[in-house]
Design goal:
about 230 residues; alpha/beta; Spore Coat Polysaccharide Biosynthesis Protein SpsA, Chain A; seven-stranded mixed β-sheet; two-stranded antiparallel ribbon; 13 strands; about 25% helix
C-alpha cells in the first residue's frame, strides 16, 4: 500500500488564536509544521502517494508542500470549499484514491509500524480496519469495543459502550467501496454515520496497539507533542 489520505481541512477552533492565521496541521513544532512530521513518518514506511483533503486556509498547505517532490513524495489535493466532514471530504477525494488506502486525521500522530499494519490488513476480509489504542495509560475515555475476534462491535465518541476496551487512534485502512456508503455533496461524519453501518455488517476490524497516539487538538496537547517529535 502506497497511498494515504490525510484530512487537513478543519480549522481547529480549540487552538484559539493560533488557527486564525494558519490551519491546524501547519502548527509549528521545532520550526517545522506538524503535517511535515506526519508525512515523514509515512515516507519511512514507503507510503509515498498522499492525498491531502484541504479546506480552511488551504493556500498555506499548498504553498508549503506543493507537489511533494521536495519531500520525496507525490502529493495531490482535494479542495473542500464547503465543510463536508470526515466522510464527505473522503467522498469528494474519491477520484484520487486507490482501491485500498490509509486514512489519517491531520491533527493526530501515531508512530506505529505501518508495514505491520498493512500486513495485518492483508489478512483481513473486512472493508475497513481502524487502529485502536489499548489505552493502558488511560489518556482518554475508551470509545471502541473490540470483541475477542478483533471485530469492532461498537464505536461511539459521545456515549461509549460500557464494554468499550480501547480508543480510536486516528488511523484507518479503507477499501474504496466504503465511499459508496457516503452520500454526496453534504457534510458526513465517517465516525458517526459510516462506521456504524460497517459495524452492523461485521465489516470493521480493529488493529490493537499498545503505542499511544498524540494529537494537537488543544494548546496543552500541542505542547505535549513537542517533547515527542
Amino acid at each position: 500500500m502506497r497511498k494515504a489520505a490525510i484530512l487537513v481541512g478543519g480549522r481547529g477552533e480549540r487552538l484559539g488564536a493560533l488557527t486564525d492565521a494558519i490551519p491546524k496541521p501547519m502548527a509549528d513544532i521545532k520550526k517545522r509544521p506538524f503535517l511535515e512530521y506526519q508525512l515523514a513518518l509515512l515516507k519511512k514506511y514507503q507510503i509515498s502517494e498522499i492525498v491531502l483533503c484541504v479546506g480552511y486556509l488551504k493556500d498555506a498547505i499548498l504553498g508549503y508542500f506543493g507537489d511533494g517532490s521536495r519531500f520525496g513524495l507525490r502529493i495531490e489535493y482535494s479542495i473542500e470549499n464547503d465543510f463536508l466532514g470526515t466522510g464527505g471530504a473522503l467522498k469528494q477525494a474519491a477520484g484520487l484514491l486507490s482501491d485500498e488506502f490509509l486514512m489519517l486525521y491531520g491533527d493526530s500522530f501515531l508512530p506505529i509500524d505501518y508495514t505491520a499494519l498493512c500486513a495485518e490488513w492483508e489478512k483481513s476480509s473486512t472493508e475497513a480496519m481502524v487502529v485502536c489504542y489499548d489505552n493502558h495509560e488511560c489518556i482518554a475515555e475508551n470509545n471502541i469495543y473490540l470483541d475477542p475476534q478483533g471485530l469492532v462491535q461498537s464505536y461511539n465518541k459521545r456515549t461509549p459502550d460500557k464494554r468499550a476496551n480501547s480508543v480510536e487512534a486516528g488511523v484507518s485502512v479503507l477499501k474504496k467501496e466504503v465511499l459508496d456508503l457516503i452520500p454526496p455533496q453534504r457534510a458526513v461524519s465517517l465516525e458517526e454515520e459510516i462506521f456504524p453501518k460497517l459495524i452492523q455488517r461485521q465489516q470493521l476490524k480493529g488493529y490493537l496497539t499498545a503505542q499511544r497516539y498524540y494529537d494537537i487538538g488543544t494548546p496543552q496537547r500541542l505542547r505535549e507533542i513537542e517533547g515527542v517529535l
